[in-house]
Amino acid sequence: MILLDGKKTSQDIKVEIAQAVSKIKLEGGKTPHLAAVLVGSNGASMTYVGAKVKACEFVGFNSTLIDLPEETLEEELLNQIDALNTNDDIDGFIVQLPLPKHIDEQKILMAVHPDKDVDGFHPMNVGKMALDVPTFLPATPFGIMELLERYKVETSGKNVVVIGRSHIVGRPISILMSQKRKAGDATVTIAHSRTKNLTKITREADIIVAALGIPEFLTGDMVKGGVTIIDVGITRVDDATKKRGFRLAGDVHFESVSAKSAYITPVPGGVGPMTIAMLLKNTLLACSRR
């Protein structure tokens, strides 16, 4: 069993980006600038945005954090997005999800200019991705593809089962893995809450992407030997034996599934770090385009 080490791989990518940024600066080019908008005080979001700011510092990007209170009105947030869209110094920006319930997330994501949408969520960029036209790929699926490529996991002609159909992970990764690309050319099945005989389907899979948000859902009896497992989930689970009172669990029961796996991502340290690295890669692309 080989661990698909997202922590190490993401660090390798960040070093590559830092080298590219150093070259840009030496040649008198513009320093890439990534902005993040955070609304409210969601603990996980604050941690994630903080990690993005640190990553920007490491690679030599300029970064801006716009921290807005929970009670920010939708109109105020739209005005902030418009200001970022028209600010020539900002190459790309993200609006951290989830947003407070009184704000329409879809409306906000639609307001981000496609050329600065380094999260890859705007319908224009999603459409380009589906048509296999160069664009910003959603950061988490992009990170999964990069992991598979760098570890040389064979995907061509393989049966891939994606559990979960979200716009952020499930649907885009199913599209990417079916396309003609290095980590692609696969036959993809999307499974979800209404799927019947799920265990029968997962037992036939060569590669499983678990992205449904239910801790330790996929167990060893649901997979065949030699399977490749990509665990996207990360959930806080109460655990009195831990100093913090909880542990982080993925969508995969690691102990039972890893015993049968050829490759598997750990949680934490698998897909999560890759998401941040690919956000940086998208920002570098945005800067070079401009």
How would you sum up this structure in a few lines?
With 290 residues, this protein is α/β, with parallel strands linked by helices.
How does the SSE layout of this entry go?
Blueprint: E1 2-3, H1 6-26, E2 33-39, H2 43-59, E3 62-68, H3 74-85, E4 92-95, H4 105-111, H5 123-130, H6 139-150, E5 159-163, H7 170-178, E6 187-191, H8 198-202, E7 207-210, E8 227-231, E9 235-238, E10 246-249, H9 254-258, E11 261-264, H10 271-289
Parallel strand pairs: 1-11, 2-3, 2-4, 5-6, 5-7, 7-8, 8-11
Antiparallel strand pairs: 9-10
Helix pairs in contact: 1-10, 6-7, 6-10
What report would you give on this structure?
40% of the residues lie in helices and 18% in strands. The protein has 290 residues and is an alpha/beta fold. It folds into 2 domains: 27-113, 3-Layer(aba) Sandwich (Rossmann fold), CATH 3.40.50; 139-271, NAD(P)-binding Rossmann-like Domain (Rossmann fold), CATH 3.40.50. It has a 6-stranded parallel beta sheet with strand order 1-11-8-7-5-6. Strands 3-2-4 form a 3-stranded parallel beta sheet, with helices on one face. Helix 1 runs parallel beside helix 10 (271-289), helix 6 packs across helix 7 and helix 6 (139-150) packs across helix 10. The termini are far apart.
List the main descriptive attributes of the protein structure presented here:
290 residues, alpha/beta, Rossmann fold, 6-stranded parallel beta sheet, 10 helices, 11 strands, 18% strand, globular
CATH class of the largest domain: Alpha Beta
In terms of DSSP E residues, the strand content is 15-25%
SSE-based structural type: alpha/beta
Enumerate the strands of the largest sheet in spatial order, edge to edge or round the barrel.
Answer: 1-11-8-7-5-6
Please give the share of residues in helix: 25-40%
In quaternary terms, these chains amount to single chain
Q: Which term fits the overall shape?
A: globular
The unreliable regions are none
Q: N- to C-terminal separation?
A: 43 Å
CATH architecture of the largest domain: 3-Layer(aba) Sandwich
- CATH H-level homologous superfamily name of the largest domain: NAD(P)-binding Rossmann-like Domain
**Domain module count:** 2
Largest sheet: 6 strands, parallel
The radius of gyration is 19 Å
Number of helices: 10
Number of strands: 11
